[in-house]
Amino acid sequence: MMIGRALVAVSMLLAVTAPAAPAEAAEPAKCLPERGTLTIGESWAQRRFNLPDVWQLTRGAGVTVAVIDSGLNTGHPQLTRAGAYEVTGTGTRDCFGHGTAVAGIIGAAPTKGSPFVGVAPAAKLISIKHTDDRQGDVGRLAQAIVKAVELGADVINVSVEASNVPDLNNAVAYALSKDVVVVAAAGNTTKEDGTPVPSYPAAYPGVLSVGGAGPDGARVDSSNATTPVTVVGPGKEITSTWPFRAYKEGLVGTSFAAPYVAGTVALVRSRYPELTNAEVVRRIALTADGGSGTGTGAGMVNPLLAVSAILPSETVALAPQEPAPLAADAIRPAPPVDSQSISIAVWVALLSLMTAVVVTLGSVAIPLGRRRRWRPGTLENGT
């Protein structure tokens, strides 16, 4: 049974159904994503995060981020470095556009003439296609998560809402046990959906669950507040990469909030590689901008603070410890000056010096006198 659905037009979140009987996968008859645009402006999310300042500290190098989604358009000039895999048997191309947009938010490389750049442009992206449409199979979703771990992912982004089934639970637990940070969208809801229910894998313990918010930090109406939320990311009026070397503006949904957080996780893992997955999630939450109501968790993710803040609990791991203060009685006062002892010592030193001078002169003068036939205690030519 499907617990969520993708919203029409630009408000999208991939949904999956319970496992069905295995069937031979076939190449879809059509692969025609919605048309994008070639001309875009700078989005509010780009301005809010002030990423050039963040990139002075880290750009996400050395971190691998897996995007489990609808595939990837690797022909896009900002995504040419990404690797593409699939578990559907339908090829890796993105016939929906969703996966290409999610991947772009995480790690699109800069290109001349475009104001759009991913949060972690130096991170390595790998796309794992688990569906070819707005609907998917939870068994393949679980399979894709395991494959991401096997491919060496440090971060996994899952902009998918699914039901809670053992295969999915086990796949997420496996990823967490391998020190992977799993970032998942909290899900989208509408009035027509009835009473909202938690979305998985976002609702699993240990998963970094992401809701959607606007420029003011308030939750977007469609963001599922029933799912436990760790932080929120930009969830409306989003711009990102799109198939056929294009871009898409006006994207809405937690699908596009999650990759902003996944990109931030990549930055943190690059700058602080010694942190565990749980410590990374904690850092993301503690450095967020503060919640603004139900469904916003710790508030809007803050990439700059996430990579620069010094947290007391991480002092040992991130910086040398300060030396322990000395005890009050560790330094004792010097004794009073003894003038008489100093005077005696000075006279003794002077007498010793004079004696040494006399001995030295004697050792030189006596041998010279002997060569001249002089004897101590006698006068030369005396009677």
From TrEMBL:
InterPro entries in UniProt: Peptidase_S8/S53_dom (IPR000209), Peptidase_S8/S53_dom_sf (IPR036852), Peptidase_S8_Asp-AS (IPR023827), Peptidase_S8_His-AS (IPR022398), Peptidase_S8_Ser-AS (IPR023828), Peptidase_S8_subtilisin-like (IPR050131), Peptidase_S8_subtilisin-rel (IPR015500), T7SS_pept_S8A_mycosin (IPR023834)
Main location: membrane
GO process terms (BP): proteolysis
Membrane among keywords: yes
Residues annotated as transmembrane: 344-366
Similarity comment: Belongs to the peptidase S8 family.
Descriptive protein name: Type VII secretion-associated serine protease mycosin
